[in-house]
Amino acid sequence: MKSDTFVSVVLVVNNQTSKLMAFIEKLSPYLENNLNDYEIVIIDQHSTDGMEVELSKSLTTYQSIRHIRLAQEEPVDVALAAGLENAIGDFVINLNVESDAVDIILPLIESGLSGHDIIVCTSNKVTSPLYKVVRRLSRRLLKSIGYTLPHNSTGTFCFSRRAVNAITESGRFYCKLHMRMANVGYKLHSFDATKYLYSFSKKSLISGVTETLHHMVFNSTKPLRWMSFLGVMGSMLAMIYSVYSLLVHLVNDTVASGWTTTILFMSTLFAILFTMLSFFGEYLARLLSDRSEHKEYNVVYERNSSVMLNENRSNVLFTSTNNEINNSQTGRNK
Predict the structure, then answer these.
(1) What is the pTM of this model?
(2) Which tens digit of pLDDT belongs to each residue from 116-159?
(3) Mean pLDDT in the chain?
(4) What is the pLDDT of residue 291?
(5) Rounded CA gap, 260 and 37, in Å?
(6) What is the per-residue pLDDT for 6?
């Protein structure tokens, strides 16, 4: 029996035309066989590999497809946010056309109907040993800024309608979507998606460090305060060292043997200084981005399927409309 839940499946793609076409060939029949109401929302990151032409063919073959083409390639956070904003389903599920199996959709819907508003798909296969070490070390740092998403997340999520509304109405998305998911007020539920992954790329050591810095710098002001504290400590050490040099000079005028130590200490101070400047530069970039009035993303156009919908599909059950008619007729007879 088909489910009456309206589901939006979001596919964010960038120059992945062949994989997208193969994925739609599996996804569309699966949704048609299991759901009464659904839509496939394709967020096209301004692909240049002929996606417009190929999708034009799919729009005349498969129903309930929406092709939203962005003006330029955007960060993953922003592209996913564009999908959430434009999706209209009771549940919104984003899938990766390169790694996710389509039969993950029904289990995610069942988990959502059981009361989970934000479902995070996880798998131990997507993390390398070095990545696990980095995340273990950075877990406390990320937790201190409120980031609580699982470290082994596959990037696939399922949102209820109220979770989508809360996330999209809570402000800007750039580099903050995952943080908003973690702090929007709805409890995160982990879903083991290992058996639904037919292909995956493991997260590396570099990606672990980059992810930690990305979330810390763009989602909290605590690193800025830590760098300020580091600068204060460096200033205090410099003062202590200057007092020490003065005392040594008063006791002994021949102070020529501290050159190596001086150079080492100055190098340390410069390292601290430039570390601070790098963080200040990131925060200045963040302030400039937040102060700008430009949109997070621009849509070039949206195209929809030209295939007629199944005549048996309706958003209102026949029994409910029949009851409405009977009640109105009874009222008139009275």
Answers:
(1) 0.69
(2) 999 999 988 776 677 667 767 776 776 666 667 777 888 899 99
(3) 78
(4) 63
(5) 74
(6) 95
